[in-house]
Description:
This protein has about 70 residues and is of the alpha+beta class.
Amino acid sequence: MYRVKTTYRTGTDRPIIEHGPWHDSRKVAEHWADQLRIAGYAVSIESQNIHTGGGGDDDNADLAAALAGMA
């Protein structure tokens, strides 16, 4: 499960963070993240971090997305 996290500012010291609905696939979440980026929002994708085996190179993707969102 994946969701898009949107961050924006409205002139205050603290950013506003909104979490979108959960999606079954990362592909769908990436589609919506791309649409929000086109609209000018800073977005990242979060996962529920459920690993079903098979390993992969995506273990640090959530950390990278979180750090990119802080920049």
